[in-house]
Amino acid sequence: MAVEIRLDSPLPDALATKWKTFRKEFEQICSIHIPRWIHTVSQQVTLHGFCDASELAYASVIYAVQPQADGNTKVTLLVAKSRVAPLKPVSIPRLELNGALLLERLYATCKNIFKEYDVHLYLWTDSQVVLSWLSSHPRNWERYIANRTSEILDLVPADSCRYVPTKMNPAGIACRGLSPK
Predict the structure, then answer these.
(1) What is the pTM of this model?
(2) Residue 76 burial (CB < 10 Å; 0-12/13-18/19+)?
(3) Which is a Pfam family this sequence falls into (predicted)?
(4) What is the DSSP code string of 121-146?
(5) Hey, how many other C-beta atoms are within 10 angstroms of the C-beta on 151?
(6) Considering only CA atoms, which of 171, 180, 177 is closest in space to residue 53?
(7) N or C, fewer C-beta in 10 Å, the chain?
């Protein structure tokens, strides 16, 4: 629902309040720190990639999980990316598939970092439809789906694709938004 406001007119009170809240919360983003250095003594790394979509956006995130010398496990946010959904209406399952393709491309980019490691990858999605598409040969699907599933399956084996409940999917944050608080 668009509100038409002239450039030289004041914002309506409700919109002005939302804007002030947004600006105040946005300032807190500077306090968020995500360590980027990955250090491990183990040659084994498991990458867990999550993808999700909404009507507004689709996103992917990859975490590196590494066993440590003291027996603990270290989980590090490796990379995340999001895209705004196309203006042309697209079904949620197709947007979810775009999220899975984005995840595959992120993995293709970051796998070279771990070329000297024993790497295992798991692709997690909350879309049963996408899992169904990936579990079957791409030739069974129409061109849009076939092209994307084919590219994904060229790099990610179908048995590495898993289901995650929507509420546990960390990629959902980028699709639906989250306050820095």
Answers:
(1) 0.83
(2) middle
(3) Peptidase_A17
(4) EEEEES-HHHHHHHTS-GGGS-HHHH
(5) 16
(6) 171
(7) N
